[in-house]
């Protein structure tokens, strides 16, 4: 089932998410719905706060990046085959010289900006079976994970922009929170949530 994606301005996007255990109600169904929602919006990642749940759960599928001409054959192959669910994730290390990449977010449609992030991460997380993994990633995969991880920490990519850039996009962000945008996937806007 495709769920509405929470738009910029909703308080849930600024909350630090809580850990869950294997008894979390209908977790497998939730994960399936999140993948369907992400694919329906042509995303490469989706975090639970983006569907209104302040829990430490996000998923990533970088296969849409596999066709990027700037990638080496090895990187392209990695992108094509990278699909994972991250539960109760903790980034243990981030290292290397920060590099810029133009990021967007399903909760902030039609806004893209260069964000600086470190190229290598070490992350501990649990999979759908609650088996614990500690893994290292670099490049675009690391970046997508960092972006989604930020969501469960209550951080948006726009929080990482300079105050000048934030001023430039302030009006666009206000329009998103009011629902004054055209999008081709389901969204829930803060103004609508308050009317309930």
Automatic annotation (TrEMBL):
Fe cation binds at residues 105, 147, 151. InterPro entries: Peptide_deformylase, Peptide_deformylase_sf. It is an enzyme of class 3 (hydrolase). One of its GO terms (molecular function) is peptide deformylase activity. Binds 1 Fe(2+) ion. GO terms for biological process: translation. Gene3D superfamilies: Peptide deformylase. Coiled coil: none annotated. Its cofactor is Fe(2+). The active site is at 148. It catalyses: N-terminal N-formyl-L-methionyl-[peptide] + H2O = N-terminal L-methionyl-[peptide] + formate. Pfam families: Pep_deformylase. Keywords: Hydrolase, Iron, Metal-binding, Protein biosynthesis. The keyword Transmembrane does not apply. Its EC number is 3.5.1.88. Removes the formyl group from the N-terminal Met of newly synthesized proteins. Requires at least a dipeptide for an efficient rate of reaction. N-terminal L-methionine is a prerequisite for activity but the enzyme has broad specificity at other positions. Belongs to the polypeptide deformylase family. This is Peptide deformylase. It comes from Winogradskyella thalassocola. The gene is def.
């Amino acid at each position: 089932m495709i769920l509405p994606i929470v738009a910029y301005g909703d308080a849930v996007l600024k909350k630090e998410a809580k850990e869950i255990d294997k008894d979390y109600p209908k977790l497998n169904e939730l994960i399936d719905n999140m993948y369907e929602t992400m694919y329906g919006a042509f995303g490469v990642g989706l975090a639970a706060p983006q569907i209104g749940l302040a829990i430490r759960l996000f998923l990533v599928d970088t296969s849409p990046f596999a066709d990027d001409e700037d990638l080496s054959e090895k990187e392209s192959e990695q992108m094509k085959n990278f699909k994972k669910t991250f539960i109760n994730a903790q980034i243990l290390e981030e290292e290397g010289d920060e590099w810029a990449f133009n990021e967007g977010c399903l909760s902030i449609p039609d806004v893209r900006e260069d964000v600086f992030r470190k190229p290598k991460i070490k992350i501990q997380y649990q999979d759908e079976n609650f088996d614990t993994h500690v893994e290292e990633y670099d490049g675009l995969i690391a970046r997508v994970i960092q972006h989604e991880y930020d969501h469960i920490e209550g951080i948006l990519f726009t929080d990482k922009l300079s105050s000048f850039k934030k001023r430039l996009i302030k009006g666009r962000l206000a329009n998103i929170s009011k629902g004054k945008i055209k999008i081709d996937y389901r969204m829930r806007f803060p103004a609508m949530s308050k009317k309930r």
